[in-house]
Amino acid sequence: MKAAFVPPSPAALLAIASAVTVLCGLIALTVGQEHIPLLEVWRAFTQPDPNNMDQVVVQTSRLTRVVVAVLVGASLAVAGGLMQALTLNPLASPGLFGINAGAMFAVVLIAPVMGAVSFSHFMLLAFLGAGATGALVYAVGMRGPARSDQARLVLAGAAISSLLFSFTQAALVINQDGLDSILFWLAGSTAGRGMNEVRLAWPPIVLGLLGSAALARHLNILVAGEAIARGLGQNVGRLRLLLSVCVILLAGTAVSLAGTVGFVGLVVPHIVRRLFPNDFRWLLPGYALFGALLLLMADLLGRIVLPPEEIPVGAMTALIGAPYFIYLTRRSGKHA
Amino acid sequence: MHRMDRARVQAWPVANRARNDRRAFCLRLLGLPAALALLPYPAGAVLVEHAMGRTQVPMRPARVITLFQGATDIALALGVRPVATVDSWTEKPVYRYLRAQMGDAQSVGLETQPSLEDIAQLQPDLIIGSKFRNERAFDLLSKIAPTILAQDVYSFVSNTRLIGAALHREAQAARLLAQLNQQIAALRVRLTQKFGPAWPLSVSVLDVRSDHIRLYLADSFAGALLSALGFAWPSQWRDGSRSIIKLTSKERIPVMDADVFFVLLRSDSAAVRNNYVAWSGHPLWQQLQAVKYGRVHHVNNVYWSLAGGIQSAFLMLDELQAKMFSEISS
User: Fold this and answer.
1) In chain A, what residues touch B244 (CB-CB under 8 Å)?
2) How far is CA A18 from the centre of its chain?
3) Which of A129, A164, A230, B214 has the most CB atoms around its CB within 10 Å?
4) What is the ipTM, given to two decimal places?
5) Could you give the number of structural domains in chain B?
6) Quick one: B245 and B136 in the same domain?
């Protein structure tokens, strides 16, 4: 056994992570095209002055980015953690429910037909696409004998995702104009979203977070194995359904708000499980906080490396997440 | 004997020359009608230097296929109608301004992925593409027909010269370019007179997409013409290291600032219009010089960006002149 790394107590860890997240959020508000001092950021909320352009930038652009990054990061990480518990598969991510594929399909193929014109329209369609696909994957993957094996959900998700991706790719090749226009959505982006979109997105996300929090104790039993869970009187089928609804709410809203942001849902749960005790009452807030933090940092980096252009946050998360993930798997070999 | 030999040696070349002259004359007599009959397809080839090396192309190619928008525009301007070309980016399959000249030319697919099978079936005798798009297909294309590739798809001046050489119409190409330069010089004088000490005005070309805005700089089709007219580029872009900048966040609006804006809407879809409304409605937009002076001009995105040929260069100049000298922003 190696020299034991004694992690700080989970409560202290959560407090530290919250503090770092708040700090990151504040830095994100000051950094950008123009440096805006914290005092001016503060005034933007306490004594707003519509003629002060710095304050306008904070209100119209930077604050929404921070809120979007926090919401999307937290949702994806929690959804990923739930997915991994639900399938008992450490490589599961929210995308496995076909959510990204469904949202992309809806935005690329259905949006032009429906005459979607505003960001809110796109969002709504993406959410419906993600939800419908998630439901379909659930129906295909979970139906069958009561003791269904988890691999079936993974396979159903992979198959339906590939099917929808191929439709989407075909459509994008035929209409390249369309591809050029939704480039940033496809790559995952926090830019250009307004408070309108945030207002649409926060209720389902909060609902999903609260729902998963309510299921935390049951999750602890579920990951011990299906037989044990049944033996302890859990209604496994109903629990799975409720969890799936939470995943679809969280990941579906996240993809509709920011496009396809990969890696957060896969990597953050692994990081958090190494730091926190194996109890979903600690893990879930850990997922949410670390997810928010990772996305905030990714967005911040994406904005400062190549000004005035921005690297889409979806690309940045992979850039930060992938090396860490490799490091993690190399180090911990046996226990995922 | 000895003398005679010498005499013969001396006489030989004379006799030879006379015989050669006679033969050449006869040949010319015989050849004249033959050459006249063959005038559309005379034998012989031209060596053309292009982005992938040198290629022998027939003297007067009759079945030309063009693989990018600017090449189609330029070939037509030189009086050669391609037998086939690639689909236009918008106003499909052929830009409106080229339709009358194009007639019923065939399509060989998209500019980003032309169909080699269709191209082969049409049995071209010259293919004009670009290194930017067709570099990897060059060897295959060359097996179908002599192929020349332009360096890129938007440098219309060098592309006009190249295609002029390939079509054996250098003089015509030079005439067109001279005409364009004349028009640029004349317009430049008018602009200098109109704006006086304020000249040169700085300029930004904005291409509005449905989820971002692109800024075209000097190293672009419109940028090259605007530079030639004497427009200046905002100071932060003068180093010329970038040709396109994609802006996604509205807090970057000040980056666009210039005395004149030319705005292209990528398509007339509601999503693009709404995005333009959203950007131009931002308080930062109102702070921009071009907006304050009412110099935000909406222009045709085919002429200014998507076409990239010599005809579209003339059309762009016409539109620019109309906008700058009515100075009512639209």
Assistant:
1) none
2) 18
3) A129
4) 0.75
5) 2
6) no
